[in-house]
Amino acid sequence: MKVLELLDEIEEIIDTASGFPLTGKIMVDASELLEITKEIRTVLPDEIHQAQWIKNERERILGDAKVEYETVMNDAKKQADYLVENHEITIRAKKRAEDLLGVTEANVKKLKMSTYDYIDNILFNFQEKMDEMNVIYFTEMYNNLERTFAGIHETLANNRDEIKDMAYRTQMESEGTVVKEVNASAYFDEEE
Fold first, then answer.
1. Is the pTM value of this prediction over 0.90?
2. I need a labelling partner for 91 at 20 to 30 A (CA). Which of 65, 144, 179, 188 fits?
């Protein structure tokens, strides 16, 4: 999937970016990230576009149903006015108009409910995909950061031990003592 490749590219930019010492901040090319973001927007799943189409189609269908309803009502009124001379015919016409109105309203309600259900299903699927991406990428990013900080901590501790050893050797040499392999950190730990 193209979106995942673009997210990998963003992650690589972040991993290889120059950092500001001791701040945990990095410097990245904003135009490069914006370009990748634009690409992501262009390749987002078709479900988003389908949801917009469904919304537009629903509005069109509801509009058509309203026009049909008004046509049926106008036809029923015309027919009722024409047949008003005979009471029994008028009663049947009103009953027919009410039946047609009931059927039309039921159809409109059924169409609305199925449209809502379809849109909700698309949104649910999209929400699940977003949750999956969150678990995959943010957990991985967090683990990478944690490993990076652990590595930095270990490097700093090793460097400090090395400096302590060098300082200890220098101290011993200035006192004229022959320096043997000694753990300098033990020397410093006593002073601290």
1. no
2. 65
Residue 46 and residue 68: Cα distance in Å, rounded?
A: 32
Q: Alpha-carbon distance 96 to 62, whole Å?
A: 22
Same-domain status, 38 and 93: no
How far is Cα 65 from Cα 87, in angstroms, rounded to an integer? 30
d(CA 61, CA 116): 13
pLDDT tens-digit map of 59-101: 888 888 888 889 988 988 887 777 666 677 777 888 889 999 9
Nearest to 168 by CA among 140, 188, 147: 188
DSSP string of 147-174, one letter each residue: HHHHHHHHHHHHHHHHHHHHHHHHHHHH
